[in-house]
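Newbie here. two chains, one complex. Structure please?
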Amino acid sequence: MAARTLPKTDVVIIGSGWTGLAAAYELAQAGQRCVVLERGKPRHDATSFAGPEEHDDLKYAHQYGHMMDVREQTLTFRNNSDQTALPMRRLGSFLPGQGLGGAGIHWNGQSWRPLPADLEMRSHYVERYGEQFLDDDDMTVQDWGVSYDELEPFLDFYEKVAGIGGNAGNLNGEIRDGGNPFEGPRSEDYPNPAMKQPVATTLFAEGAAELGYKPFPIPSANMTRAYENPYGAQLHPCTYCGFCERFGCGYYAKADPIICIYDRIRDHENFEIRFNSWVMRVDKSSDGKTATGVTYLDEDGREVFQPADIVCMNAYGLWNVHLMLVSGLGTPYDPQSRTGTVGRNYAYQTLAGANVLFDEEIITNPFMGAGALGMAIDEFNTGNYDAAELGFVGGGYIGSTQTNGRPIGHQPTPPDTPAYGAEWKRAVREYYSRSGGVLLHGSSVASPNNYLDLDPTYVDAFGRPLLRMTFDFPENDRRMAQWGQARAREIAEAMGHVETIADWNRAAPGQSYSIVPYQTTHNTGGAVIGTDPATSVVNRYGQMWDHHNVFVFGACLFPQNLGYNPTGPLMGLAYWTLHYMKTDYLENPRPLMDA
Amino acid sequence: MVTQFSRRAILAHIGAAGVSAALPVRAIAQNAYAELEGRPWFFLTDDEARYLAAVTDIFIPEDEFPSASQAGVVDFIDLQLAGPYGRGAGLYMEGPFREGEPTQGYQAEHVPAALIRRGIAETDQADGGLKLVDRDAEGRRAFVGSLSQSEDVFQSAFYEELLKLANWGYFADPIYGGNKDYAGWEMVGFPGAHAYYTSFVDDHNRPFDMPPKGIAHVPGQGPAQFLRTNGREG
């Protein structure tokens, strides 16, 4: 049956997470009529995330009450192209969201800026060590096409929207104690002060300082005082309740897209949001040069065509790529010929670390936690150390966090403890309030062998082929993780009151990436930003090379993943893109860069 | 003929291992199912319930704090398997089904309720020996030990599911039928769902001994009183 066609709108926005609502706010205020299509339900912090009901570990942390439903859409996965990809039948390694606010309601709130070297990664290494340093067939390192100085005003604005708390380490070029001395120069301090620190992360900071490093509080979207953002949203101080990641915050104490943006635009005459609306595809004009709008299933499952002058793709990164593939936007990546760009440069996050158990003098009270509560050092992140002798690129922050003590997930035990039984039970009881850790939150380079395409066998609830993910840790990242893990262990050894240390490394030699245990919801790439249409899907303004009225947002833009959590960088990019849409594109729609 | 159904009586039969499945509970109403004792199982058969009590009490045996079955873990599992989780909520179940690599995760052709039912049927007396509940404590430990090391894809999925459900049941909020009297939370010192720690978080190494309180607002006792109430001091 032919789709029902609605009246044309100026802008259609796919997804109501952080970037989708930021786009709606900025474009609606600029006079554009915006229609936001959200596949999930309406919800609100005050009514949907209120305690104590929200503080339900089983429902939200372990049965994924706020996450996407894999019965509607999932992906298939394999480690390499010799394997048959099989469906991700249950969520595990990463947890994309669904519903108003998207995954932005159940993030931890760790909010970083990219380093200048992150954004010019290829140039950085070539200038420092020569072209041959990146001559690795297993790796495709690229510049983003946007420099730190260009992005800085937009990173700064996002930090004000989300009320980030932290200590500036580099204020207009002046290095300041207590902050990250490696960060790029910031034009203004964080809008809020840093979080208080519990004993476990304090012991980490003391150990790191003893080794000569410069620890600083992790920049946090968990509010540290009452705060009003530039849109007029009111946020409240964090209670350190220990229910951040996987939960919404009913206290208005964790910045999220609903309270920070949606509430401030929902009543605007140019703003409309339609829930339970699944976008099936982006439709193209007959000459293929532009998009004409999107086709979606409305809440009654009827097919609807929404024409629009501009299409903004603001779904979770993986699903942006999926929509491009099923819509025929751009050229799919072909790993044999290594041509095409959609699905290319998928990357993840490389995690390793050292868990510690403290002696009996330490009482950590792990349930007093917050998603971004912790301390970190940045000496081992991309470009901050001399890689000449080490033979790999990238890096990560090394930190210690105290996010929660919810007892289903928080069961620290000494290394040789059995998985069950009397000894296990005794150990869980003994060490529940005596654990800490040192984490390497490492970068992930893109590899020609890691990519996203469409699965030949499995389909979603709407009959579309599932996205197929082919991924394993590249050798570069395995070397990086082994080295970073050793640095993490040295810090653990320098910490006071440590009884035992247990090393771990998700990218250990001989161990393939597994989609089962939770690692991070930091899936990046697949529709990357750049200045060369042969190696990027969008130009440096986030505009598709092949369809100039399609703008793409989110971590799918990252050419490779950095050693930080992605929300800060992707929101900086979003405001950068929106700035150029408003000041340049709207008055004269065209490609903003020559291909 | 009218018979009085008793979950406690059914599980008491597993006492061969020296384990009493009956916990002297304080009658606190933590949820709509607060008193499950006189109600038939929602999903399990009596034999399945006994099997689960035997296995989960190997996972979480009695010491100063209750065993799994004493803390309501079998009641918890029964409710889970009868509900959306057991029927496959959050599980993509389209075929074809293939074995796959361990890195590809759960590929069993069963929703959790079917996995547990078939797993019990397949493993109990699989070696032609005694039923699990008829074995002594050592025999039960050996049974669970061998299940935990099984290289059979189905059996290892079954084992992982059992261990996960036992853990959930011991530590999830009591509204789900397990963690009876906050046994799991009292054991580790987790204060529960009510949480304002702004003035405590940087007060280092100070014990925080507020008794637990779950979603249903029912206050717990605190570990010391919990042990006294249950006659478990020392």
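Moderator note: Residues 16-29 of chain B have pLDDT under 50 and may be disordered. Chain B has one domain: 7-16+29-188. Thread marked as resolved.
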